[in-house]
Design a protein that fits this description.
This protein is of the alpha+beta class and 604 residues long. The protein contains 13 helices and 26 strands.
């Protein structure tokens, strides 16, 4: 596979806006580059960073569920007035399917006046769309992104150039070098400090790892590329926690997971609302741990190595482009996608044919009066197709796709396929079948809830047979209680869109529970100082079906935090903990690092 390398007070608010402005736009002679994720006011647009390692940058998404979103607005300063050619980096997101209609249309407003060009109407790949030549009458103007549809328009960046013949670079190192030069981003990232443990990924696994290690005295950096922690169990994705915790002989493993548990839980429908996930409470919880530094909205996309060891991670702020350099003795890849391990050259496996896909959950709500919905000729045409169509079936976990597409290289395609399925289903129900006249789309996740991609390989690779044969390991620490649960396209619906199936069926295999995951699945076999926790641990595709749920992943994090403390104590590597300090790790596991004793947590 080929992958692109990687306030309350008015004064403070003014300073923050100035910083964003400087980071969002820059000049290079006759050229002004504006990174739209750094706009002062995002309006109703949202920042999407999921695919930046492939297409080069975060971008803004008009995620309005069919209703145009509020304009994103910023102020741009020019070196001089005059004529400028405009380029906008965007794409027609349904073009990969040759679908009609270009739903992601938007305009660019200059001091409130729209350009003639409609953007987002051409090209299936990210590219610079020519916006023509405009007169910039003064050195300071307002620029707005004006959404026209509410149907997932997307914009990466804007260029104003006084050189009418200039064509900006579009991909790879040339585009990266152009951004850095024009925005005056330093070649060397800013020093963020040196840490005992650098944890990349702020889902349940990474957050639990950071808290566990910090409570044992390690200086920890927790790097998360979203504005919230919790990963799939956050307001952005809204997947509920599953798996059971707190089993003998380690009844305290799972205590930190419980500290992060939301007080309420919802499965489906509009009751699965943002406040359930207690985003701010969790952020404050992490910040309250005295040895953790939390870096939200930083995407780790670079590493430095010394032989077979990682020496530093480089992370980029998804709003400002600022890059930070994190030195560390130990690193934990809790990204789910094995991003740090991959960059470091860690051994890994990936199942490309028949892997589990991501879900973008969605729901509808009864408004109490008739409400219309636009026709969607560019969406999946479900007007005469079977799909789960009752209210309780809409937008739940089995609205899943990507089974036969590369989960890394085609991640944006897969997410967009989920959205096409949602819009196509709602169009068919509302406009063709005339059902649910008073209902409207209420919420949909634009951040994908992923199940499977890379699996980093450790000294033990856990297989389906290990579960079925109850193979015991001396370093067993994490109780696994979720059935071997593998998803493939549901045969009842798969024929209509062969290759782009969007409804899954779970295939279950039972085993004697709990089964205990060995510690040797939680560190890399060839990168000496790399831990992993979450769905990127050392298991086969079938083994992943049992270990991937979030309470189980959180317990993995608790254990690697404990192991990291022994690495610091003995100046050891993760493998040495198994070889020389396993009994001490067991004692730490029996003691636990939760703040209070707990009872067993079930699936609910």
């Amino acid at each position: 596979m080929k992958e692109s390398k990687n306030i309350t007070c008015a004064i403070k608010k003014a300073l923050a806006i100035t910083f964003l402005l400087l980071s969002a736009s820059g000049t290079n002679g006759q050229t002004v580059l504006v990174e739209v994720e750094g706009f002062e006011d995002l309006g109703g647009w949202v920042i999407d960073q999921q695919f930046m390692d492939l297409m080069g940058s975060p971008f803004l998404l008009a995620h309005g569920l069919g209703e145009p979103v509020k304009d994103a607005v910023t102020t741009i300063r020019f070196p001089k007035s005059g004529k400028y050619r405009i380029w906008v980096r965007t794409r027609d997101w349904v073009a990969p399917w040759n679908a009609p209609g270009a739903p992601g249309k938007f305009q660019l407003l200059i001091d409130g006046k729209p350009l003639d060009t409609i953007f987002g109407t051409e090209g299936e790949k990210w590219h610079w769309q020519d916006g023509g030549i405009v007169e910039i009458p003064k050195k300071e103007i307002t620029v707005s992104l004006h959404d026209l549809t509410g149907f997932e328009g997307r914009c990466d960046a804007i260029i104003f150039t006084a050189d009418s013949d200039f064509v900006p670079p579009n991909e790879g190192e040339q585009l990266s070098a152009f951004r850095k030069k024009t925005l005056k981003i330093a070649n060397e990232p800013k020093n963020a400090g040196r840490f005992d443990l650098v944890v990349v990924g702020g889902g349940m696994a990474g957050t639990c790892a950071a808290v566990s290690a910090a409570r044992l005295g390690l200086d920890v950096a927790l790097i998360q590329d979203r504005p919230v922690v919790g990963g799939n169990n956050s307001s952005e994705v809204r997947v509920w926690l599953n798996g059971e915790t707190n089993f003998e002989p380690y009844p305290r493993i799972g205590d930190i997971v419980r500290e992060l548990e939301p007080a309420k839980r919802a499965h489906v429908g509009p009751a699965n609302s943002a406040e359930i996930y207690e985003d701010q409470k969790r952020i404050e919880f992490v910040k309250s741990q005295k040895n953790i530094k939390l870096f939200l909205q930083y995407r780790a996309n670079g590493i430095e190595k010394n032989g077979g060891r990682i020496s530093a991670v480089v992370a980029e702020n998804i709003r400002t482009g600022q890059r930070l350099h994190f030195q560390g003795k130990l690193f934990a890849d809790c990204t789910g996608d094995g991003c740090i391990g991959h960059l470091a050259g860690a051994d890994y496996e990936i199942t490309l044919d028949g892997h589990m896909g991501p879900t973008n959950l969605w729901n509808v709500v009864d408004t109490g009066s008739p409400v219309s919905f636009p026709r969607c000729p560019w969406a999946l045409d479900l007007s005469d197709k079977l799909f789960p169509s009752s209210l309780e079936q809409l937008g739940v976990w089995y609205w899943e796709s990507g089974f036969y597409h590369d989960p890394i290289e085609k991640a944006e395609y897969i997410r967009d396929l989920n959205l096409r399925a949602m819009f196509g289903a709602w169009d068919a129900l509302k406009n063709t079948k005339k059902l649910y006249p008073n209902h409207k789309l209420n919420w949909a996740a634009y951040i994908s809830g992923k199940r499977e991609s890379r699996r980093l390989l450790g000294d033990v690779i856990l297989t389906k047979e290990n579960f079925l044969n109850a193979v015991k390991y001396p370093d067993a620490f994490i109780p696994c209680t979720w059935t071997i649960d593998l998803h493939l396209p549901d045969p009842a619906y798969q024929d209509a869109f062969k290759g782009d199936e969007f409804i899954s069926k779970a295939n279950y295999t039972q085993y004697s529970k709990p089964y205990w995951i060995p510690y040797r699945c939680l560190y890399s076999r060839n990168i000496e100082n790399l831990f992993m926790a979450g769905r990127d641990i050392s298991v086969t595709h079938e083994g992943l079906g049992a270990v991937r749920v979030m309470r189980t992943c959180g317990m993995m994090g608790e254990v690697i935090g404990m192991a990291a403390s022994l690495c610091k104590k003995y100046n050891a590597d993760p493998r040495d903990v198994y070889s020389h300090h396993l009994d001490e790790l067991k004692e730490l596991a029996k003691r636990g690092e939760g703040e209070s004793p707990t009872k067993t947590i079930g699936r609910n």
